[in-house]
UniProtKB/TrEMBL annotation:
GO cellular component: cytosol
Catalytic reactions of this protein: uroporphyrinogen III + 4 H(+) = coproporphyrinogen III + 4 CO2
A Gene Ontology biological process term: protoporphyrinogen IX biosynthetic process
Protein's name according to its UniProt entry: Uroporphyrinogen decarboxylase
Domain Uroporphyrinogen decarboxylase (URO-D), first and last residues per copy: 23-32, 140-156
Length: 347
């Protein structure tokens, strides 16, 4: 571990314990809004950055050193563990993941291999170990959730309405179920390996599951999410976080899962989650990242509002409602981090 005292405010907030200040981190805190990131990215493809532990660790540390955030998140992508199981995926700059062999039939599902982290993604485990030596804040490991991974695997890339995914789910329910179970196994195996390597918390990104209504979520997705968080809880006491965009209507379902922290986007306030929906878990969020392109006075007022709501009960982690954008200025995130730390201490 690094010389400096270890800052465990984030882990304490995950466990709903008292904190020195509200911990802060930003989804996609490593990314194209950073000139240093863009410079490294010019030299490597996305997966090269991911697969060379020294580069991966450097990019992971960048926002911690530059912004003063309370956690690091491993620099990888939700697509990282899909490549070795037979998904031909490329990350295209300015687009995102593009898949050359999208899933159409049950055969495309059954031929996917099982993930063996030590053989298939040794560089991820190496990066986690390296970062554990270097950081004085907790490292978050992560995985995509089955629905969100399946959406890329079926659509072949980013989508606005997920109609191919839903069509597959409705018309080939048995194949859907096989796919969900396979991806649940991958998620659990991958996260357990990251935890064994030293990840101090894990986040499951279900970014696009908000596209489903509540009955469909309950029928087609909730059982495997129960399986994932149940198996993780059985294996370790490392805090688990579940996040999705536009998924406020699913929060009552999420409240029944064995996840420790729920991520909110900007559409659901912390007060609403706690008071109207009765969520008693820790909450993470939820400044609209678009607001970071607006005037500082508005950013500060909104951040103040989020902290005022967050500190009413133990268990709040400040974050954005979704990832950073390339247009955001480094200085804005530096100023925001300092403001959150200072303001939440006074409360
Ligand atoms: O700093 C960090 O947050 C760590 C790195 C990280 C994480 C946690 C990256 C790097 N990707 C992710 C997760 C991820 N990837 C999610 C879940 C979180 C979210 O909703 O944002 C999703 C949906 C993806 C898929 C993906 N990969 C997209 C979105 C495409 C879409 O459908 O709109 C994109 C643009 C990527 C590429 C990517 N991943 C990460 C970075 C820094 C980038 C940009 C790569 C580049 O061109 O430099």
């Amino acid at each position: 571990m690094a010389d400096k005292t270890f800052n465990d405010n984030f882990l304490r907030a995950c466990r709903q314990e008292s904190v020195d200040h509200t911990p802060v981190w930003y989804m996609r805190q490593a990314g194209r809004y950073q000139p240093e990131y863009r410079k490294i990215r010019e030299k490597y493809t996305f997966f090269e950055m991911n697969e060379i532990p020294e580069v991966c660790a450097e990019v992971t540390r960048l926002p911690v050193e530059q912004l003063g955030v309370d956690t690091a998140i491993l620099f990888a992508d939700i697509m990282t563990p899909l490549k070795p199981i037979g998904v031909e995926v490329d990350i295209k700059s300015g687009v995102g993941p593009v898949i050359a062999n999208p899933i159409r039939h049950v055969d495309d599902v059954t031929k996917l291999r099982d993930l063996e982290p030590e053989n298939d993604v040794p560089y991820i485990l190496e990066s986690v170990k390296m970062l554990n030596e270097q950081l004085s804040v907790p490292l978050i490991g992560f995985s995509g959730a089955p629905f969100t991974l399946a959406s890329y695997m079926i659509e072949g890339g980013p989508s606005k309405n997920y109609h191919l995914t839903k069509a597959f789910m409705y018309s080939q329910p048995e194949a859907w179920s096989v796919l969900m179970e396979k991806l649940a196994s991958l998620t659990v195996t991958y996260l357990k390996a990251q935890i064994t390597a030293g990840a101090k918390a894990v986040q499951v990104f279900d970014s696009w599951v908000g596209a489903l209504n509540q009955p469909d979520y309950r029928h087609y997705v909730a059982p495997i999410m129960h399986r994932i968080f149940g198996e993780l809880k059985e294996a370790s006491d490392v805090p688990t976080i579940y996040f999705g965009v536009g998924a406020g209507h699913l929060l009552p379902e999420w409240n029944c899962l064995q996840a420790d922290v729920l991520g909110l986007d900007w559409r659901t306030t912390i007060d609403t989650a706690r008071e109207e929906l009765g969520i008693r878990k820790s909450l993470q969020g939820n400044l609209d990242p678009s607001l970071l392109l607006g005037p500082w006075e508005m950013i500060e007022a909104q951040a103040r509002e989020i902290i005022d709501q967050g500190v009413k009960e133990p268990g709040h982690i400040f974050n954005l409602g979704h990832g950073t954008y390339p247009e955001i200025k480094v200085e804005t995130l530096q100023r925001l981090t300092a403001f959150i730390h200072e303001y939440s201490q006074q409360n």
